[in-house]
Amino acid sequence: MLELDQARGQLEELKLFAAADVLESRLQQATDKQWTYVSFLVDLLGEELAQRLRRNIQTKMRMARLPYQKTLAEFDFAFQPSVDKKLIDELATMNFVRQAANVVFLGPPGVGKSHLAIALAVEALTKSISVYFTTVTQLVEELRRAHHANRLDAKMRQYLRPRILVIDEVGYLPMDSLAANLFFQLISTRYERGSMILTSNKSFGDWGELFGDSVLASAILDRLLHHAHIVNIRGQSYRLKDKMKAGVYGTPPDPVSSRSVRKEANHAEKRLPDL
Q1: Which residues form a coiled coil (predicted)?
Q2: Residue 183 falls within a domain, yes or no?
């Protein structure tokens, strides 16, 4: 036991705290399974590296302002069959980031838009791709404050810095003219320079009402959808599935039809004149 305590103390002195924590249990496993010395060392150091990776990801998540952690493995594709798993797996490779393309998740509340957006953000962080998360309400308010303080250029540079900008909950509240113009400036600033992941409960045909200006909405969609993957989720609310089974809650109408998505997306591919 003296040698064990000495080895544990040396590991801690070397700041290999995870290895020190599991040293005794891994020694027992090595004895039971008759590992070689090299196998034992690889396993012990592997645990240390895995713990450091987990801590690194947690730190990056805090810096990215992710509200919680979700993974693609946790998403119930069987419950939402309208989601193309092959497309999501392709997005998880982060090829869209290298192409400075965008991802837009559309659908009613509770169908998993934010889950998928955050899960892709987590995938990006594991691949050392910088991410920043914000709701559209937080985004607009920060841009508004920066505008009034004559710091808009600096704030725009901050939102341009991450390779992926996640904007959640677009469409839940309408925007006034200043907010809509600030949002347009942000989309224009990142256009073909960095990827965005957006979630929205509104079909593209409703964005004119959302921004209070159909011409401005068309200009936003023109830039947003020029290089974009659109995921239209038409399923039921995952959060309410148990109540639906019990007959307590009925299925709400889907505000985002696949036909309108295709029509608006095809229309947006026709380049509009710059505003």
Answers
A1: none
A2: yes
Q: Residue 138: which CATH number?
A: 3.40.50.300
pTM of the model: 0.77
pLDDT in tens, 105-138: 999 999 999 999 999 999 999 999 999 999 999 9
The candidate with the shortest Cα–Cα distance to 106, out of 206, 218, 215, is: 206
